[in-house]
Amino acid sequence: xxxxxxxxxxxxxxxxxxxxxxxxxxxxxxxxxxxxxxxxxxxxxxxxxxxxxxxxxxxxxxxxxxxxxxxxxxxxxxxxxxxxxxxxxxxxxxxxxxxxxxxxxxxxxxxxxxxxxxxxxxxxxxxxxxxxxxxxxxxxxxxxxxxxxxxxxxxxxxxxxxxxxxxxxxxxxxxxxxxxxxxxxxxxxxxxxxxxxxxxxxxxxxxxxxxxxxxxxxxxxxxxxxxxxxxxxxx
Length: 235
Hints:
Radius of gyration: 21 Å
Structural class: mainly beta
Number of strands: 18
Order of helices and strands: HEEEEEEEEEEEEEHEEEEEH
Helix content: 10-25%
Mean pLDDT: 88
Oligomer: single chain
Number of helices: 3
Distance between the termini: 66 Å
Low-confidence stretches: 1-25
Strand content: 35-45%
Shape: globular
């Protein structure tokens, strides 16, 4: 009974530390959150946002000193200044102008060339769809992801009436958390949608099409009217 209790206790500790046992050799594998630790603060990646324009990049404020992913196996490891989850040693860190709680690093895989982070010690996450000021959106870009030629910009909206029409389709989408895409024969098409305001962070959300239905995840899975084809199909 004592052995069983001890095993249960160890498993609980592993779960609380965000670790898991691999199938080979019982190694501990750590599922790192995308972070950068700088000047005593932890910055987390903004997964639903990208840098709106390179002109928002300010001065260099530091460099990554150590990449913890693939190098740290101890779940008790204490994060130190200069540590980053996934960026290599020497990666330059930049301030975002007039926004002291935001930083960025160069990232060739991100639209506009940078990955952006916010200080979780100073501000709350504020890039969910419900946070986006719809009336301030001045440009929308939609990319199709992973086609044979790489991610492709398939259309851009700059006219006020087009922007309002596209946004309204998203606002009117019907929440359906139980929806299952029809991907028995083909994988859904993936799109990335970017919404630009006057802020340095543009909002980013994913759109999918399974051959029958357009859907996305503003929070729970939501179904979008086929009218969105008016924008996608004309480009």
